[in-house]
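testing teh design pipeline on a random one, pls ignore if ur not involved
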């Protein structure tokens, strides 16, 4: 939620950058693809460079910046599309899988089941949002650990060399956020049902 507020404040700046990139021919899909490749690289670095976790963290930072810029370019060039949104969301999920797969491969002193559980809850958080929005409900800002917050935790602790701590924190944040969003959905659906019966 805090990161969403920060993103809203820097949005004009990112839109200016996005507009400049659009004018020189950079497309949203190109930035999405580059961000996706950096996320895959992060997974590779987690797997094969466990002693240099900061490299994976830097790769995730780069991926995150491009993830913001692809939306800025799309908005400022009038290229916002359902296909682009679908592609971006799908690649985000694959990116999460790649990153956690890299962590599982290297171990980092973690039980693989814990990492899988963390990944599972992270994907569930995204699924509940997608399902809610498909039913016409706004889910952005619901929950303490949205994707941006979870990635920030992973970045900070990976830079410090403690990716194993990040996994436990992300697990807690994702589990709490899933419960919060699930409860929110149930309340909203019940309310809609009551309104329909009136």
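output:
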């Amino acid at each position: 939620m805090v990161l969403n507020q920060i993103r809203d404040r820097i949005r004009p700046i990112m839109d200016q950058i996005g507009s400049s990139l659009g004018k020189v021919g950079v497309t949203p899909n190109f930035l999405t693809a580059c961000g996706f490749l950096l996320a895959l690289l992060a997974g590779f670095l987690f797997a094969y460079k466990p002693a240099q976790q900061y490299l994976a963290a830097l790769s995730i930072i780069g991926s995150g910046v491009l993830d913001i810029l692809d939306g800025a370019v799309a908005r400022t060039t009038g290229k916002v599309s359902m296909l682009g949104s679908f592609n971006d969301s799908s690649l985000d999920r694959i990116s999460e899988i790649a990153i956690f797969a890299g962590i599982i491969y290297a171990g980092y002193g973690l039980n693989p089941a814990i990492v899988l559980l963390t990944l599972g809850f992270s994907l569930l958080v995204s699924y509940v949002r997608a399902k809610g929005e498909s039913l016409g409900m706004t889910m952005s800002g619901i929950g303490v650990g949205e994707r941006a917050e979870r990635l920030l935790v992973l970045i900070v602790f990976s830079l410090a060399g403690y990716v194993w701590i990040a996994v436990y924190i992300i697990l807690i944040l994702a589990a709490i956020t899933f419960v919060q969003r699930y409860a929110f959905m149930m309340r909203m659906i019940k309310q809609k049902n009551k309104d329909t019966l009136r």
